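Quick start: read one record
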Amino acid sequence: MKKLKNEKELVKKAIEYGMKYGEQRGVVEFEATDSSNEKIEYIYRLLVHDKLIQPLPEDQVSQVTMKHKLAIWASKQK
């Protein structure tokens, strides 16, 4: 897995976009007390469920790999 140039910023954007997406779909309401790790996992699983990103093999799912997948997804959003 090759790290992206501005991966941290892309992860922040992915969380922002993912929260909007989930709330617009009406499937989730994020709380201020939710940790970023919880948000990342929920957004990742939601995007996989909606077939917007390819799932990772279950034995490779971790915070690092989920962040990377979300960063790639965010880089393709407008």
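Residues 7-25 form the longest helix (19 residues).
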